[in-house]
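Sat 14:20. Reprocessing the chain from the morning session after the first attempt stalled halfway. Input below, unchanged.
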Amino acid sequence: MEKKIKVLYLGSIEGYESTLNVLSDFANVINVPPKIELLSDQIEDADAILDASMKTSISEELLKNANKLKIISCATTGSDHISTNALIERKISLKTLKEDGDLIKNITPAAELSWALLMACSRKLNSALLDVKNGNWEREKFPGIMLRGKTIGIIGCGRIGGWMATYATAFGMNVIGYDPVITDFPNEISPVSLESIFTDSDFISIHVHLSDLTRKMVSYELIQKCKKGVIIINTSRGQIIDEEALIDGLKKKLIGAVGLDVISDEPHVNNSAIAQYGKENDNVLITPHCGGFSPDAVKIVCRRAAEKIKIFFN
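Finished this time. Tokens:
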């Protein structure tokens, strides 16, 4: 019997079970908690990694010990936590869900959380819930913003941005969008310049991949041009926003509220300036990069990531 390869799995139990369903006939799949020291202990004789977590930095230093590693298959579209230069140097293949447009186009949890954050910010939901828990009943403290007739500016008009446009249209909003890469916009989105997103939008929602082109794309200069009271949603990557400029905009009340599923210093939330600001200000809502985490979706994407490993070795 041919010796089984060793695959390290990083992620939730739902994804692990899907991975086993695909790989158990020819691989030993080790479920590794997302801690760098545990991954270091296992990586030396690993043939493959299936990463459905993104919590662990797969750095050049870590990869020095990966003597047998041939492929990393990500059950995510993002891979900025992985040292791609080190992969190229060591001839390690990298696969992500960016290759699977048809599969992921109808996977909606990240877009759904983006919309939930927008709704929560527009209705001061976090503060209102807490106030009632504290025994109060004063609706005048929590005026909501009517979405119908307002303008949403979408930065990044691909899969998730397209879903956001669909949701916004259903709520009777005007939808404008900017994308640094694509030129074929969804029908619901009217293309505009990046500056117009900030000058004309009541809501801004960010859905671009992190790259040299998009790092700190949401800059101090653009935030200063915001329509007063704008609500900003970011579920892409924290580094796309200049977080110091974001805090400055909140302090000056240029920005009415922010809803974030990502921060620059994640997962080190205690080191994050915007997270610390949010502890003292109820117009900052932060969730722990859970937008794409739905067991329904995780099972699908882990199955696909596992299939890529199987195809690679066969």
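Residues 5-99+295-313 form a domain with the Rossmann fold fold (CATH 3.40.50.720).
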